[in-house]
Write a structure and sequence with these properties.
heterodimer, A: about 325 residues, mainly alpha, MetI-like fold, about 0% strand, flat, B: about 625 residues, alpha/beta, 8-stranded mixed sheet, 6-stranded mixed sheet, globular
Amino acid sequence: MFSLILKRLGVGLITVLAVSMIIFAGTKILPGDAAQIRLGQQATEANVAAMRERLGLDKPFIVQYANWLTNFAKGDLGVSLSSDVPITSLIGDRYKNTLFVSSLTALIGVPISLMLGIMAAMFPGSLYDRILTFVSVSLVAAPEFFTATLLVLLFVFALGIGNAVVVGSTENKGLFELIAHFALPITTLCFVIASQLIRMSRAAVLNVMSSPYIEMAVLKGIPRKRIIFRHALLNAIGPIVNVVALNLAYLVTGVIVVEVYFGYPGLATLIVQGVQTRDFVLIQGLGMIFCLTYVVLMLIADIAAYASNPRLRHPK
Amino acid sequence: MATHLNPEKEKGDAALNKGDVALNDVTLNDVIFETRNLNINAVRGDGSELPIIKSVSFKVRRGEVVALIGESGSGKTTISLSALGYCKPGLKFAGGEALLLGQDVSRMATDDLRPIRGEKVAYLAQSAAATFNPSLRLNEQVTEAPVLHGSKTQAEANAKALELYKALELPSPETIGTRFPHQVSGGQLQRLMAAMALCGDPDLLVLDEPTTALDVTTQIEVLKAFKSVIKEEGAAAIYVTHDLAVVAQIADHIVVLYNGEVKEAGPVDVIINDPQHPYTKKLMNAIKPLPESGQGDDDTSDHLRDDAALKAISVSAGYGVGKDGKPAITVLRDVNVSIERGKTVGIIGESGCGKSTLARVFAGLLPPFEGELKLDGNPLAASLSDRSRDELRKVQFVYQMADTALNPKQRIKHILGRPAQFYGNANGLSVKDQVNKLLEMVELPVQFADRYPHELSGGQKQRVNLARALAANPEVVLCDEVTSALDTIVGANVIELLKRLRRETGVSFVFISHDLSTVASFADEIVVLYAGRVAEQGPVDKVLSPPYHPYTRLLISSVPEPRIGWLEEAVATDEAASGIAGNVELTSVGCPFVSRCPMAIDGVCDTQAPPRRTADQKHLIECHREINELV
């Protein structure tokens, strides 16, 4: 199993390298010149050439890539083309925002969704199961802005609680104030991840429930609760952690609609800004951060799946 | 352990029976389980019901083993599960009674059944590998039921489990419970399942084909353990099987089922020695005794040519990628087998001996890393992708499971028409005519051409599977366990069909099976594989009569015979003593059979590869012992 994890680590590293090449090459083949963008349209030829030299843009492609990658590994993401600020400080605050929202969403949404999904698997075909399936399928179909609008209408306008727009950053606020601020975006995101998590955990547990060893447990007179939580769940961990990891990655990288809707500054809106201002350096840095998030989360999920497999944990 | 009931339990039993005292006055202490006119229906999709079990009545008394015997679809498993008050999904109880210790379990709610299941009645399924939860340690699963039901503390249950592990002769009984299911062998797992069932001291055991999936050698070992443990624990048992030879060893009473009805019932010696009902007679006839000698059809000699149809010369093959071009796991070592034109070669050996691997080598699915293949005397490419279409046509494969080999979304005419078209048409028939001809060859009505595989029975599907191979007009057909998944009678019919086809078409068959008696009834030559080596090969009558390779002797002596008392004789032999409990282990040095061989020579058999000795013109034995020692 140790060698398997090492192999998996290797694959993760190769993925990161491959993605870094694609990101770097992708931003290079786009029209526009970083030095030109940085200095603006009015810059003289000589100024642009000097800037190119300073940014290392006159060096061969491979050398540029190698420099960029080593700097990235050291934590230096370069300087923004549009605002002359280091990328790390641009990202800093927004990363906190995003992490705050996504970790709170995960803490609330994941356990509740899994419980609901597993309960649906305990009573397949029951009224509860059918209602839950209906609701979760509807939630999958509903776009985030629609869910968000419904929540704002209900809480802010009808009940008068919570904020429709998140104001300011996370700094200088108490936890409760923060939660009041972020309650609606977090609820929206919980709904988004819940639909998939409920359906996948239900399917994973139901799949295991049809195995002969579950029938055997029934014929041994084992209570239903123990059959689900001891016999079935252990064998459903692999597929479930994978879905959880994918959803967590989505929370860090893909929540653009919710960020825009509630107007809070997170990473997803930052990358949109980067594209709008043609800030290649910013896009490169964020692309790598998103890639790392995915790779690390999937790595953890796979290791958890290995660990839950007795054949790998206890070889013959 | 004869009277194993603890006081609380007896109190419980008495309480259970209070309501029915008038009814069960006489049989109270005697009958453990009884069905009275039990009916079970299948519920169709539209809500209508189809009777599956029709008014079945039988009794199981304390200390008695009752065998339910019949083929698949006879309802034997369904009836046996009624003892646990359980119906498979889609079935329901539809009248009559299933009385466990006087209590009608067919009318009880699941919550009320829970304390009964695993305590008063325990179930052993066919496949222990599927029945054990792969993620839980064995001991937890074995002791789970009594601990949860509160009839034993964990310590008491552990002690009981240890006692059972010892009684079932499991290796290292103190620690085996800490292992996971994948860490023990199939035969051990089957015995552990018996321990799981017996841990709650049940009054009734329900055993559903518990040895059917096992090799003959493992079957003996498991049967022996079951028999002694049932006797010691004083439990009653329902033993579900399709194998009369097994029944003769273990049962006291037999109930013969057909189509959900009882056809015949009585004590084991009466049914075995003097069957009355035609169906029981048919079941008895389907058992193929091992031929004494001089077997094998000789009327195929006109197809003989000088060069063998298919030949493997010094073939070694394995799986995975290892060092210096060799596979990580070498399965076959230096295998020489030639399949003469129009002859049938049977390949036998326990699971893990490389039988299917050899078929895959012939088929080109697994190129060997050493040795060569020849087809009609010409070199044959090792890999499927390097073979010409004509070479592909000449070697065809028939898989064990027709269910998975036939595309469920294609009609039979497409399944058969496609290879017929692909491999060309020698006699100018249209595809439709060819399909009809193939169906006739395998004795199926031509109307089946328009059907889908799921509309056919298991035996019919296997015939289509066979016709699919014949559609290519092959020279050699590789049959991998083609009758193993079929019922005795259906399997015997498929063998008859194969014999006819061999006679009429002159096709050579490679017939792989773990069932020695099936192979012996059909093959001209036998190859005995052990751990990837050819232990013995030659004409059927030569291989099945002395001199034997010690492994062949073990296999022959392990085939159950349908007579009472066979098991006791079989386990008393030298071969059984040293061989039945062993596992097949692939080794690169010495003779792989050494650890299970009663005749092994220390310092020779474990260090040197055995020499190939010629016992008779075509009869070869690989053994360190001289031929005259092997008689």
